[in-house]
Protein: tRNA (cytidine/uridine-2'-O-)-methyltransferase TrmJ
Organism: Vibrio olivae
Amino acid sequence: MLNHVKVVLVGTSHSGNIGSAARAMKVMGLSEMVLVAPQCEVDAQAIALAAGASDIALNAQVVESLEQAVEECTLVVGSSARSRTLEWPMLEPRDCGRKMIEQAAHHRHSALVFGRERTGLTNDELQKCHYHVAIPANPEYSSLNLAMAVQTLSYEVRMAYLERQERAYSGNISQYQAEYPRNKELELFYSHLEKVLVDTQFTSKDQPGKVMNKLRRLFSRARPEIQELNTLRGILTAVEKSIGSKR
Amino acid sequence: MLNHVKVVLVGTSHSGNIGSAARAMKVMGLSEMVLVAPQCEVDAQAIALAAGASDIALNAQVVESLEQAVEECTLVVGSSARSRTLEWPMLEPRDCGRKMIEQAAHHRHSALVFGRERTGLTNDELQKCHYHVAIPANPEYSSLNLAMAVQTLSYEVRMAYLERQERAYSGNISQYQAEYPRNKELELFYSHLEKVLVDTQFTSKDQPGKVMNKLRRLFSRARPEIQELNTLRGILTAVEKSIGSKR
């Protein structure tokens, strides 16, 4: 499904950025890179920074115009700072990811479009996009580099993908299953604990209630597993012995 | 509020990564960087990659141990791949961001902890964290570089911050907030507990490690509040007295 989301880099100047973008994509499970009129080659620097994702950079489709890059796409989103001169439908990164995965689930392609390192996308290119997406950066310093922007938007695509999968297979997600004690055993632990608190004179025999409620609340949050409960019981027994053996 | 979230880099080898991490932080509005036993200097390479965020790298606090880095923090989250050998309370990046902002809103500090480039955090360091957070990367290629991981988790902190601001404007924020101890106090509790386990001969003096790790894991899940921690300390003291008074 993630191969239905393309990452389109327009007019990239530094080959290292192509490599880093490829790495960011692959880590997030994306694979389809398109280079529009790149100003550099996919060279050794690109390969070095791509690390294990050099396949994505080497297999990138190279085209002359943004139009060519996105012609099969039903959803085209351009990455851009929020603009005052160009009012355009805006998406948050999170909604952008969700919309793309919605498309992908119906075998439709979408494109995340990133502009030049210094100047971004031209107005003409921005107007070829259905939406713009702005990463809500620090207004005092919003200089996100290209690969970081690819990383962040790809991350939201992946999160939307995982959310959707979880919904699809809900009930069948985590493999690890903790073994929890039966309530009976839990109550035996609390009785034991209460006894030790009285024995050590931490609480008086008539008034253990308030402290015990606090401790129940604490241990309920932790939800001890069987093994852990056994450890706690063992500690209580060790305390009893230490007191008793001195008697 | 965002200055209550620290980014802690442990044993970083490449100064460029410190620079790129500083840039990622600043773009997302974070400012507090701590370097634990760095294996490199904040040199020209770091400054170059930090671009307009060199102030963050240059002002980074440098300390010897993770414990020092996080002693004032009420929430410590270690970045880690999901581990099979060490089961620990896990957070999704999104929940991690939200929890940190919740703390920050009440003037509490939290720390995002990142390990070494090749080997990550040691088990010992991971066990000093209250939670682990894993960026849900592509299982076939999960090699996220350090700065990208900083970018992604800082992004979720920022998103949580913006969400909260939005809710604050719509007057929709709950008032109740648990008071959590600083990490220093938590560590004092663990030392105290360890001492009592040895005193009661539940563990031998040389081998408290394994049991202590189990107990850390349990209490990390519970995340004791200040009052609760005081209760636990009080119980330990009562046990000590009971043993001692019989001697």
Remarks:
- Chain A touches chain B through 56 residues (CB under 8 Å).
- The CA atoms of residues 20 and 208 of chain A lie 61 Å apart.
- The mean pLDDT of chain A is 89.
- The two ends of chain A are 70 Å apart (CA to CA).
